[in-house]
Design a protein that fits this description.
- With about 450 residues, the chain is an alpha/beta fold.
- The protein folds into three domains: about 70 residues, Glutamate Dehydrogenase, chain A, domain 3 (Glutamate Dehydrogenase, Chain A, domain 3), CATH 1.10.285; about 140 residues, 3-Layer(aba) Sandwich (Rossmann fold); about 160 residues, 3-Layer(aba) Sandwich (Rossmann fold).
- A seven-stranded mixed sheet has the order 9-8-7-6-10-11-12, with helices on both faces. The protein has a five-stranded mixed sheet with strand order 1-2-4-3-5.
- The chain binds NADPH dihydro-nicotinamide-adenine-dinucleotide phosphate (NDP) and (2Z)-2-iminopentanedioic acid.
- (2Z)-2-iminopentanedioic acid binds next to strand 3 and helix 15.
- NADPH dihydro-nicotinamide-adenine-dinucleotide phosphate binds next to helix 9 and strand 7.
């Protein structure tokens, strides 16, 4: 397989789509040996078929703000691959959203969903709408307008969206309400739903919990665990919140969270009501973490990222490319032994190189944050069966899934020297299932 030629062709076809090209290159570099050892994949042009989305919908959202002023936003749904199950993946509302970011996220989602062991294909969507400073009524009108168009492209057995940055329980509620109104049906059309109308227990916590379960498995390979460990977390949203809860439960000490305005360093540890306060910060729609410093007397480092803090474990849970090569060097120099991604692609390729060179434990988001979509899959199962599992049942299934993803990474990513390259492991294991399914199904996607 000629990775350079494929990448050159892709770059020509998709000019300027840097995040998408970054995500594709990482996967191709990991799977090149497997593809060369299995000529049936090249004969069937599996790679070329996999890196091109099945379809991309781009549409306009008109909505009116509280003052009566009309706004126009751009929205997308990227249906990337449905070889192993209905398209599945979140919706992101953030001013930075563009086609490149959603194609990278949709592409990653194919392999992540494959790793979960559940039947879900890969998709992503969203809009450049900025929820910052918007009233509830404005968010509702935007969501309703968004669903008016999106509804024709999705369905409980076709494509099942969920949350991501800027889309949480409130937005899923407004989206679901409009879908129900349009179709006159209650169905498992979205995941991350409220508990009173078809949601699953543990879904809000699932991505963060899953990330920490995965890190627990990684640490165990070195005879280590979270007890007494100092943990640096970035972000202060849904994923960061769930991760902080689980780290504290396992005896670790969380010392940082971050937002676009900078990071908080709390030497006493972020636990109990301080973790609850993260929810208040998010709900304020202000997009800043600084108020935490005033509330709890912690340090605020304006415009900086938490990777300069001394820690044993780092959990990047904010956004893509938020941890670069220099940050990685600082983490390693400060004795960090494990970096486990809660966000999607938070580490740059240069950072990953530093981690693997120093042979520290490093897990890519598509493996370690798969607990979110896995629990979405469990929500879909409960909706289909029209019943609800207990929190303990869902948590146990989530935990087992994270262990099985870890085992798959170890199986496919262990090198001759015994070092587990989790990036290779996740990409190869995720790829094989989808590629073999595509062969079985004939030339349909
Ligand atoms: P939230 O909207 O709940 O939180 C996102 C967090 O990242 C916020 O703290 C946000 O602040 C921050 N953030 C965004 N951009 C930047 C930036 N440039 N610098 C610093 N911080 C930033 O989203 P989630 O917690 O749901 O998502 C976080 C990450 O986890 C994303 O990469 C997402 O794709 C990934 N993920 C989410 C899953 C889920 O189930 N929700 C599942 C798997 C992965 P702000 O909004 O102020 O910019
Ligand atoms: O990136 C992700 O895996 C998510 N945002 C969750 C997707 C989902 O369908 O639950």
């Amino acid at each position: 397989m000629n990775v350079e030629k494929i990448m050159n062709d892709l770059a020509k076809k998709n000019p300027g789509e840097v995040e998408y090209l970054q995500a594709v290159r990482e996967v191709l570099d990991s799977i090149v040996d497997v593809v060369e050892a299995n000529p049936q994949f090249e004969e069937a042009k599996i790679i070329e078929r996999l890196i091109e989305p099945d379809r991309v919908m781009i549409f306009k959202i008109n909505w009116v703000d509280d003052k009566g002023v009309t706004h126009v936003n751009r929205a997308f749904r990227v249906q990337f691959n449905n070889a192993i199950g209905p398209y599945k993946g979140g919706l992101r509302f953030h001013p930075s959203v563009n086609l490149s970011i959603l194609k990278f996220l949709g592409f990653e989602q194919i392999f992540k969903n494959s790793l979960t062991t559940l039947p879900m294909g890969g998709a992503k969507g969203g809009s450049d709408f900025d929820p910052k400073g918007k009233s509830n009524a404005e968010v509702m009108r935007f969501c309703q307008s968004f669903m008016l168009e999106l509804a024709r492209h999705i369905g409980p057995e076709t494509d099942v969206p969920a949350g991501d940055i800027g889309v949480g329980g409130r937005e899923i509620g407004y989206l679901y309400g409009m879908y129900k109104k349009l179709t006159r049906e209650h169905s498992g059309i979205l995941t991350g739903k409220g508990l009173n109308w078809g949601g699953s227990l543990i879904r809000p916590e699932a991505t963060g919990y899953g990330c920490v379960y995965f890190a627990q498995e990684m640490l165990a390979t070195k005879g280590e665990n979270f007890a007494g460990k100092t943990v640096a977390i970035s972000g202060f949203g849904n994923v960061a919140w769930g991760a902080a809860l689980k780290v504290v439960e396992l005896g670790g000490k969380v010392v940082t969270i971050s937002g676009p305005d900078g990071y908080i360093y709390d030497k006493d540890g972020i636990s109990g009501k301080k973790i609850d306060y993260m929810l208040e910060l998010r709900a304020s729609n202000q997009d800043i973490v600084k108020p935490y410093a005033t509330e709890f007397g912690a340090e605020f480092h304006e415009g900086k990222r938490p990777w300069e803090v001394k820690c044993d474990v780092a959990l990047p849970c904010a956004t893509q490319n938020e941890l670069n090569g220099d940050d990685a060097k600082k983490l390693v120099a400060n004795g960090c032994i494990c970096v486990c991604e809660g966000a999607n692609m938070p580490s740059t390729p240069e950072a990953i190189e530093v981690f693997t060179e120093h042979k520290i434990l490093f897990a890519p988001g598509k493996a370690s944050n798969a607990g979110g979509v896995a629990t979405s899959g469990l929500e879909m199962s409960q909706n289909s069966m029209k019943l609800s599992w207990t929190a303990e049942e869902v948590d146990k299934k989530l935990h087992d899934i994270m262990k099985s993803i870890h085992a798959a990474c170890v199986k496919h990513g262990t090198g001759k020297d015994g070092y587990v390259n989790y990036v290779n492991g996740a990409n190869i294991a995720g790829f094989l299932k989808v590629a073999n399914a595509m062969l079985d199904l004939g030339l349909v996607n």
